[in-house]
């Protein structure tokens, strides 16, 4: 008999972890719904024609492909094998596991656009799969927790995403810093230094500023072909500091000759105006012109959230995109979205002990008994407790009280109701606090009142 195992890069979640994960999911979900986002789900599998080509060459390689059912190799000959894996894949596989939630969401919007109220606000909490090499913090199966609003260019949506981030982080007790940039500012930077069209290379380099320092960034750009004149003009960028408003003033002086750069500043200043209207405290928000992520698809605002007090990567990210559905034949549908990294949020909360006490407890009250008669006596009481909204269970076997108590201890059940002959005669049940060991004689009604 083979020893059971689990696929590398995947995980089992026991009751304690699942209760904590559900606490995070529930917190995020409640905030999404407060802001008018509606839930959807898309299948675990998508047609490869939907997925391929949307994530670049590397993403295509990391897609998990599903072999066609039946004798998929029947029509495969040596010429097909000689063509290589790319051509061969299309002949033996038509489906794949979804790589993220964004492409399936775009497909869903296109297929259902005539029935959706636009702007359409959706949230989605589902697993995705990637053929990465498993390592600490990187898995082949993991959950994404996304919210997007599509069908509007309104910058109010950006401000509301920031509001949602604040509510989620505060509810979870996480100290955080939210960094915001705009893709147009990155383009403006490349124009301002005379390196038009090189914003991608520029952004990737200056994004490393905190890690490798100014000199190494300039050295990397020089190796990438940036002229000395461009690097000299870049120097003022490294001096941009101060409050968010001071940064805006310095950027405006830099972008006098860049219309797209001016547009990026204008958009972010409008978002900041909405922060003021909504009463958002700016102490956790930073304008960071070195922030660069999602450059292949973000066209406006870019968000990234990092947890303070702990060494870990970003725990939330997102941004504005102008053409979500263009690859499916419906161009020009703009939107903005955010994705919460639940696995990293879990790690942060665990390291900083932020989960509420007894969060692993699902059962609040266990009915224990001395025998068959007492067990049967407990059943209607159990039903009344559940009807009163108390998470309750009864020990189902005829066993010694000690074993029943050990069961309660192992499940961290806080209260035990013990039923013996005396309790049946008097109607006064023995309620034991498993933490303090204190016992009281109470009627079922009095016990249920305690739980209220």
Could you describe the 3D structure shown?
There is one protein chain. This protein has helices at 15-34, 48-51, 56-62, 78-82, 85-92, 102-112, 156-172, 183-192, 199-206, 209-223, 228-238, 244-254, 259-278, 342-351, 372-387, 401-410, 421-426, 444-451; strands at 38-39, 45-47, 65-67, 93-97, 120-129, 141-150, 176-182, 285-287, 301-307, 316-321, 335-340, 365-369, 392-394, 415-419, 429-433, 439-442. It contains 18 helices and 16 strands. The chain is α+β, with helices and mostly antiparallel strands and 452 residues long. Helix 1 (15-34) packs across helix 14. Helices cover 44% and strands 19% of the residues.
Which terms summarize this structure?
single chain, 452 residues, alpha+beta, BirA Bifunctional Protein, domain 2, Rossmann fold, five-stranded mixed beta sheet, 18 helices, 44% helix, globular
Quick summary of this structure?
Helix content is 44%, strand content 19%.
Count of helical regions: 18
Instruction: Provide the CATH topology of the largest domain.
Output: BirA Bifunctional Protein, domain 2
Instruction: State the share of residues found in helices, binned by percent.
Output: 40-55%
**Strand share of the residues?**
15-25%
Which class of secondary structure composition applies to the elements? alpha+beta
| Major β-sheet strand ordering | 1-5-6-11-10-9-7-8
Query: Quick one: CATH superfamily of the largest domain?
Result: Bira Bifunctional Protein, Domain 2
What are the segments in which pLDDT stays under 50 over at least 5 consecutive residues?
none
Please outline the major beta sheet: 8 strands, mixed
Radius of gyration: 28 Å
Number of strands: 16
Q: From the coordinates shown, what is the CATH architecture of the largest domain?
A: 2-Layer Sandwich
Mean pLDDT: 89
**Domains (count):** 2
């Amino acid at each position: 008999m083979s020893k059971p195992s689990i696929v590398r890069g995947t995980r089992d979640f026991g009751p304690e972890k699942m209760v904590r994960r559900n606490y995070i999911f529930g917190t995020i979900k409640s905030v999404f719904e407060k802001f008018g986002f509606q839930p959807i789900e898309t299948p675990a599998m998508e047609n490869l024609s939907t997925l391929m080509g949307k994530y670049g060459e590397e993403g295509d390689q990391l897609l998990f492909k599903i072999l066609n059912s039946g004798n998929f190799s029947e029509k495969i000959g040596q010429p097909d094998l000689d063509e290589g894996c790319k051509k061969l894949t299309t002949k033996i596989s038509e489906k794949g596991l979804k790589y993220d939630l964004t492409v399936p969401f775009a497909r869903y919007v296109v297929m259902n656009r005539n029935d959706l109220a636009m702007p359409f606000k959706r949230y989605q909490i589902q697993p995705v799969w990637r053929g990465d090499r498993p390592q600490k913090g990187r898995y082949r199966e993991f959950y994404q927790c996304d919210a997007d609003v599509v069908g509007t260019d309104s910058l109010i949506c950006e401000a509301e995403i920031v509001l949602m981030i604040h509510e989620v982080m505060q509810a979870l007790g996480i100290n955080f810093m939210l960094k915001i940039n705009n893709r147009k500012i990155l383009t403006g930077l490349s124009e301002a230094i005379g390196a038009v069209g090189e914003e991608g290379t520029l952004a990737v380099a200056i994004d490393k500023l905190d890690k490798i320092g100014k000199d190494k960034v300039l050295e990397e750009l020089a190796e990438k072909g940036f002229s000395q004149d461009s690097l000299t003009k870049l120097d003022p960028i490294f001096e941009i500091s101060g409050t968010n408003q001071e940064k805006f003033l310095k950027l405006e002086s830099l972008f006098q000759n860049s219309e797209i750069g001016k547009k990026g500043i204008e958009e972010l200043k409008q978002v900041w105006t909405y922060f003021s209207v909504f009463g958002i405290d700016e102490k956790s928000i930073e304008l960071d012109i070195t922030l660069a992520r999602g450059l292949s698809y973000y066209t406006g605002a870019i968000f990234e959230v990092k947890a303070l007090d702990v060494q870990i990567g970003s725990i939330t990210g997102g941004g504005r995109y102008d053409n979500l559905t263009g690859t499916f034949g419906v161009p020009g549908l703009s939107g903005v979205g955010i994705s919460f990294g639940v696995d990293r949020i879990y790690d942060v909360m665990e390291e900083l002990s932020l989960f509420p006490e007894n969060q692993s407890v699902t059962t609040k009250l266990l009915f224990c008994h001395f025998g068959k008669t007492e067990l049967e006596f407990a059943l209607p009481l159990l039903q009344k407790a559940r009807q009163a909204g108390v998470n309750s269970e009864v020990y189902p076997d005829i066993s010694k009280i000690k074993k029943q108590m050990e069961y309660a201890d192992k499940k961290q059940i806080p209260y035990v109701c013990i039923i013996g002959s005396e309790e049946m005669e008097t109607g006064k049940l023995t309620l034991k606090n498993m933490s303090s060991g204190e016992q009281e004689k109470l009627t079922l009604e009095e016990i249920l009142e305690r739980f209220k």
